[in-house]
Structures are given as C-alpha cells and as structure tokens.
Amino acid sequence: MSNIRMVVSDLDGTLLDDSHELDGGLVRRIQGFTEAGGLFTIATGRNWRAAKDIVQRLAIRLPVILCNGAILADEKEIYYRSDMPVGSMKGLFLDAQSAGLSVLLFEHDTVRGFGSGAGLERFREKEKTPVEPVDPGDAFFGGRGILKAVLVGPFDKSAALWRKHETDFSGEYSCVQSESDFFEIVKQGENKGRTMLKLAERLGVSPEEILAIGNHMNDKEMISAAGVGAAVSDCAADLRPYADFLCRQPTGAGVMEALDQFCAAL
C-alpha cells in the first residue's frame, strides 16, 4: 500500500495542458485527494502573480513553491526566499538583447522585461500575466535583487551566451531549461527539490511520503528527492532517467494516472 501523504506537481506541461489550461476533472480529483486528508501543492517557475489564479482554483492551502524554488509562499506570507543580484549579469543580459532574445526579471509579484517583443508576448500569452517594460540602463543594474531571470528565444543561442559569460558569475548562478525556448537562471543551489524538502520538514512529512510529478529539467531535483518521482509521458527525454514512474499519459491525464497509481487510498 502506498504511504504517499503529499503530492507536489509542476504546472506548465504537467498540471496544465499544452494550451496552459486546467482540466475540470483533474481539479475534482485533486480536491478529492485533499478532502480525504492528502496534502497537495505546486512547484513552478512562475511567480505568485502568474500562479495565484491556479492556486485559488485548486483551493491549495499549503505554501507553494515559486520561481523554481527561489520562494516558498502563500497569499499571506513568504516563508522562504532567495534573491540574487542583477548587476553581475549585466553583460549577459545586454548581449541577449542585442542577439534578439527577450530578458525577463522575476520578483514575487512582478515580471519586468526588455528585448525582443516576440519573446515578451510569448511569455504573456503562456502565463497570462503582464510584463512591465524596463530600461536596461546602468541605473537598473545598481543593486536590484531578483528571484530568477529567463532568456526567451532559441535555446542554443541562450546557452552560447551563458557559456560566454559564465566566468563572470564566479559560480553564483545556475541555469536550467524549462520550455523549449526558456533558459532560466537562478541562484546557485536553488531548485524545486530543495524547497520542496523545506516545505516537507515544516509539515512533518518525510521525503518517502512525497509524490512529485514533472515534465522538464527544472523538475529533476524535485522528482529525484521525492519518495516517488513521476514524469508525464511527453516529458523531456533527459528527465526520464530520474523518474521512478513514467506515466503513459501526457500533462493532466498523466497527473491523474500517477494519483490513481500511488494515492488510491485517499
């Protein structure tokens, strides 16, 4: 019999379908799980502003993991956050702008951006949240802290720029792919799995009692740290070796499959 007490799911490409919508049947299944005593939350690259409508629709009562682990919060309180300075990434960001990429800078309730208009619109459409235009002048880089940054555009181009500037950062940051064209930058050591374990400790839940579900490489640490790590069927190929359970179904149907497989008692 499964001993799963807590389920942690990624959002985009996992809970949400390819149109970034939430299936009503999945909502009812999750609510049934929590009404029976299960614990459910999300771990996402989104910030609070982009995630809060989904949190409300799912009636999530636990803190949620945001910005790929840089923050743990609910609607009333921030329990953990890990800011990083923008200044040392100035050269990378300005080169990204010159190369035709978009640069997104995440704070808890705000996303600021500059660069390619197509990339900014791609982000707005995906996360249904506004982007505040910002002038990437010297004044902006003077000590402001952010939770994460995202370069939007051809991934190989972002990766090449990262390699060019990596020695500027002295190991301060790490990078991960979250979408085919999203190159995400977070503070070194921050990830969904680390913050998931912080939450579990707060709740008195052991790692063995967690089911974590994801679809891309920013979910790797989360599904590795959980008692059961599941990946939906259309997950990134590089994520598959880290999963204990490979769903036969994609996105929300895969989440339903994992819930039925490991949380049937609830």
How would the blueprint of this fold be written?
Blueprint: E1 6-9, H1 24-35, E2 39-42, H2 48-57, E3 64-66, E4 71-73, E5 78-81, E6 84-85, H3 90-98, E7 102-106, E8 111-115, H4 117-127, E9 132-133, E10 145-146, E11 148-152, H5 155-165, E12 173-179, E13 182-187, H6 192-203, E14 210-214, H7 220-225, E15 228-231, E16 245-246, H8 251-262
Parallel strand pairs: 1-2, 1-14, 8-9, 14-15, 15-16
Antiparallel strand pairs: 3-4, 4-5, 6-10, 7-8, 7-11, 11-13, 12-13
Keywords:
266 residues, alpha/beta, Rossmann fold, Hypothetical Protein, Haloacid Dehalogenase-like Hydrolase, Chain: A, domain 2, 2 domains, 6-stranded mixed beta sheet, 5-stranded parallel beta sheet, 8 helices, globular, Cof subfamily of IIB subfamily of haloacid dehalogenase superfamily/HAD-superfamily hydrolase, subfamily IIB, Cof, HAD-like_sf
